[in-house]
Amino acid sequence: MSAVWLHVGQCGNQIGEEWWQILTRENVPHAEADRYPFCSPDGKLSAICVDSEPKVVRKLQKQVKSGSFRKNNLIVGKRGRGNNWAYGYHGLHSANEKNLLERTMESLRKEVERRDCYCGTMLFHSLSGGTGAGLGSRLCEAIRDENSLGQILTVTVAPHQAGESPLQHYNSLLCLSWLQRHVDGVLLFQNDAVLRRTAALLGKKAPVSDMQPQVSLSAMNTYVASCLAGLFYPLKAFTTGSGISVGMEPWELLRSACPMPTMRFLHLAQACKRQEWGLSHHVKSDSEPLRWGTVFWDSLASSVVHSLPRESHAGQPHYSTSVLAVARSYQEDTFLLSRDSVLRKLKQAYHEAYPWNPFSLSCWTDSLNIVEPGCHSHLLTICANHGSSAELLQQVVARAEAMYETNAYLHWYWRYGCEEADFQQAFETLCSVADDYSRLGE
């Protein structure tokens, strides 16, 4: 029982809704012992849900199993933060509403005290909104100051490049720089990439048609949540002798995937296939399940690397400092038999930057696929510290800089306490990180 799960803003709580629905399913085998990393001793989820408006948090409370959340951990305000990082970071200048930051940190302290062993905080948020980006940045800073030994891992969603808000480039710039300074790892999801991946998955299941499958926001959030479940649902390898997980998966992930302190942005991809045996009269030999399992793992690896951005717009290949593969299947042995083939394929696709690093490619396995429990399925989740993060950072810097040079919308940031130094430091921080990623493989 090591983590506190913190959802901030509309996006953070919407992903949280899908995440907790997966974790609180009734039909998951041996789930009771595996729920300890997510629950307090009294059975309540160790989760804090924060938003400056009540609508999304109230919906989450209704959709997830009744009684799962602690009432005092559902923290809402009465007015939004105007999609403004400065407004979210500095908060209201009014005594009429108790500070969201104060209330959240108070709940966090109590959750930390309920932990048998507190190791860190998982924070879910977006880069574009005032609450998710601004308050999320302030919370990362406050949590780091108050619990300096605890780690912070964020689930961060970047907005569509086509535009969600006129202030999204400023918000992303400032939030990303705060994350680089105050957190240990960033699981970075880009809405455009999530949309493409979700559409591809829906397209496979939908009837053959010339029409592009419609992708709902809920479907995109479900994909993000399933990637997280593939990574963080307890594995037998990390359980104690009693069979109860202590929830070390997020922190073992950081040790595996963030070997370089200056590069903390992680790319996730996932593929899942259900194994079908064909006609009912077909008779399987003893070796056939293993043979079919090997075929499935090779197919899943190909599916994952197919969606991977291989090179920059300038034609330069992307490299990785580290790659972690998590394989879940009711036939765990089938992955072990095809392990070398799968890892070789991943190594070629992700372009290992440091061949001298003996731990640059790791794999975890488990017999329970939490995403599709109770069926013959294979799930492969890949987390990589990948150079494609530089593309996003460079785009954010370029677009924010173009607006900054014309003084566009800056008065909204000065109005709520932001200063020029905040922007200058943010530009320098992200340019430095992007350069580090761009130099991988040299």
Instruction: State the distance separating the first and last CA atoms.
Output: 41 Å
Largest sheet, order of strands side by side?
3-2-1-4-5-6-7-10-8-9
Q: Tell me the CATH superfamily of the largest domain.
A: Tubulin/FtsZ, GTPase domain
Report the sheet-strand fraction: 15-25%
CATH topology category name of the largest domain: Rossmann fold
Any idea of the CATH class of the largest domain?
A: Alpha Beta
CATH architecture of the largest domain: 3-Layer(aba) Sandwich
Number of strands: 10
The chain-level mean pLDDT equals 87
Total number of distinct structural domains: 3
List SSEs in N-to-C order.
EHHEHEHHEHEHEHHHEHEHEEHHH
- Biggest pleated sheet: 10 strands, mixed
Structural class: alpha/beta
Helix content: 40-55%
Query: Radius of gyration in whole Å, from Cα?
Result: 22 Å
Unreliable stretches (pLDDT < 50, length at least 5) are 206-210, 277-288
Please tell me what the overall shape is: globular
Number of helices: 15
